[in-house]
Amino acid sequence: MEKWFQLILNSLPRRFYARDTVVVAQDLLGKRIVRKIGRQIISGIITETEAYGHTNDSASHAFRRKTKRNQAMFDEVGRAYVYFTYGMYFCFNVVARNPEADAGAVLIRAIQPEKGVEIMKKNRGKTSEKNLADGPAKLTQALDITKKHYGLDLTSNKELYIAEGLEKQKKIISDSRIGIQTALDNLWNFKINI
DNA sequence: CTTGGGATGGTCT
DNA sequence: GACCATCCCAAGG
After folding, report:
1. The whole model's pTM is what?
2. Which nucleotides of strand C are protein-proximal, with an atom < 7 A from a CB?
């Protein structure tokens, strides 16, 4: 059995997500997203994430109060929070927070494609392998992640989950989060170069 | 390489 | 009724 195939068999456990949202955002870098559609498999290494908090974070969807849309950010850690934005795109988050917090999630902003590149190209309507999944909405397009995945348990689902990835730790670059205008002092955008 | 405008609709005020 | 945790393309340097 090939090594990469063994690695993607097991999803990260619930306890991985039951830690501070910022720490989880950093630890998700280098991990592997696995998407199975029928008998086809897509995978990629996470290269950019952002942490979003609760009442401590004015840029977070959960800042004001619990709503139907942000409900998932208050639910069980390790589940997916998918939201619709700009009238045409979805963004994929993983619910994560320490047990004392009420809400929190990590936005997955970019992956480096690994397996299933042809499927990603098809899903993206592209012929080139460039820019396939290097943005939050490009990523959901490439992996066919939509609102139907809202609340999905990433620790037990077989069609979409996150597994171990790179073995070697990479240097993390911290920055302000993209596309927001408040809480700019929170350097909660994290990237690695592969 | 950078910049500006259009697409498009759910959510919140 | 405005705002968006965005992307793409065309035009300019």
Report:
1. 0.94
2. 4-8
Report the percent of chain A where pLDDT is more than 70: 95
Distance of A174 CA from B6 C1′ (whole Å): 32
Of all residues in chain A, what percent carry a pLDDT higher than 90? 93
State, as a whole number of angstroms, the distance between the CA of A76 and the C1' of B4.
42
Classified by CATH at the fold level, domain A3-191 comes out as 3-methyladenine DNA Glycosylase; Chain A (3.10.300)
Nucleotides of B under 7 A from a protein CB: 7-13
Q: SS3 string of chain A?
A: CCHHHHHCCCECCHHHHCCCHHHHHHHHCCCEEEEEECCEEEEEEEEEEEEECCCCCCCCCCCCCCCCCHHHHHCCCCEEEEEEECCCEEEEEEECCCCCCCCCEEEEEEEEEEECHHHHHHHHCCCCCCCCCCCHHHHHHHHCCCHHHCCCECCCCCCEEEECCCCCCCCCEEECCCCCCCCCCCCCEEECCC
Distance A88 CA to C12 C1' (A): 28
- The whole-number pLDDT of residue A1 equals 58
